[in-house]
């Protein structure tokens, strides 16, 4: 009989571990070896959950994960018995037992930014991973929180230091999500970044994650990349699209001219997508040049689904 398999959010609730730690223990120490679905999503058995519960208890008792990660389940139980650790499931923090909405994470996240408390902001984002999918976190927590920070900075309620601290934490958090991606079977490539003069990369990182959620395989290049380099990367890798984020209003005209150049370089070879706050005033001009302008991540996600269908000749 096939064992029951559980999604990582359920495993987090059972073990009290956050997804980052579970994945890190898997990647670095092979503590568990979850089953992978056809779309490369992790699925865990009841035995995996028991191992993670015992490993957490042992680590909290002073053992190094590197020394115990590959112990058998029976040896872990013996270790728990010798150390006097309870063998019942770990009691969960009260916040894990609630059923919060995405908006419930924005206010504490903003308070952490106001207090310049980077660990608190990281904790808010990490806890969100226990409750929501990656896409919902990006679209309904990260993006609204960035918007709120941007407005507060413009209004003078936050200083540059606040914005930089928030960006650093979010960049690290999103980077970990990107590093954890695995290509889905048959996924086509898309190159993502910002063009010359555009150094704000959080928008581009969310775009790369949105592409992955739409079934594409993103190659994230970072910020401040000349159009020629992005086009060369598309051609070298055989990617079928490029996606550009234009966030900073400073130098946005130059960035849009770079998008035009990218469109020319890739014409007939790959689709070009553009979005971001600073590109809104240029959306008509972008569309005239067959560049797909997307107002938000949801629109971008749908545009990628449409592009994938066109690429397959309209076959589902």
In words, what does this structure look like?
This protein is an alpha/beta fold and 316 residues long. It has three domains: 8-82, Orthogonal Bundle (Multidrug-efflux Transporter Regulator, Chain: A, Domain 2); 99-179, Methionine synthase domain (Methyltransferase, Methionine Synthase (B12-binding Domains), Chain A, domain 1), CATH 1.10.1240.10; 189-311, Cobalamin-binding domain (Rossmann fold, 3-Layer(aba) Sandwich), CATH 3.40.50. The protein is built from 15 helices and seven strands. The protein has helices spanning 8-15, 19-29, 46-60, 65-68, 73-82, 94-97, 103-114, 118-131, 134-154, 160-179, 202-213, 227-237, 252-266, 283-288, 297-311, and strands at 35-36, 42-43, 189-195, 217-225, 241-245, 271-275, 292-294. The strands form two sheets. A five-stranded parallel β-sheet has the order 4-3-5-6-7, with helices on both faces. A two-stranded antiparallel ribbon has the order 1-2. Helix 8 runs parallel beside helix 10 and helix 10 packs parallel to helix 11 (202-213). Mean pLDDT is 86; it is low at 86-97.
